[in-house]
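Sequence only, no structure available. Ideas?
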Amino acid sequence: MVEYEAGSPFPGVIGRTLDESSPAWPMPPRAPEGAPNVVIFVLDDVGYGQLSAFGGLCETPNIDRLAKRGLRYSNFQTTALCSPTRGCLLTGRNHHTLGLSAITELSMGYPAHNAVMGFEHGFLSEMLVERGYNTFAVGKWHLTPPAETTMAGPFNRWPLGRGFERYYGFLGGDTDQWYPDLIHDNHAVMPPSKPTDGYHLNADLADHAIDFIKDAHVNAPEKPFF
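Reply:
I predicted one. Tokens follow.
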């Protein structure tokens, strides 16, 4: 199959008949060979010095193992608040530039404080999906203005509007662990079972993260994910 990059001349042949023609297809985005999978965990209410990887008293052996095998970033700007830190992490921008001086629920009608992130501030997810990655988000989002979190939309500041192909979690700052307000992609859904049947949000989020990865891997095992 002949492929060509978008924007380049069509390399096929368009003849007078099918026999005189040869097709060519626009090349889909492909990550470089050997591109790594990227997994980011964002933990609320965890102090820098609490993890044993940074000298804390809480034993976190799995996080320690990741720290030993990877890089430790010790100069990341944080506001000790949910929305601003998430915005900084996904864009690399200062939180005031993003309109996230505080959490979205405390937004005010002034520049730097309105919780309305401009689309000129690209998300990691938007950049990676254009380069051949699958992109998933699971859990707390907390980056959408409160007035835009209903099923009336708009949805362009929901996860699927900011480069994530799949999403399962809750849009606001918190939710009930046993009776959560859940969003699956762009739809409000009920929890799959009841607390009396053993339901808890943590396990539900983990199960969906695994399912997202499995679904993609079955169809395109060579494709990395973020």
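Residues 123-226 form one domain.
Hope that gets you unstuck.
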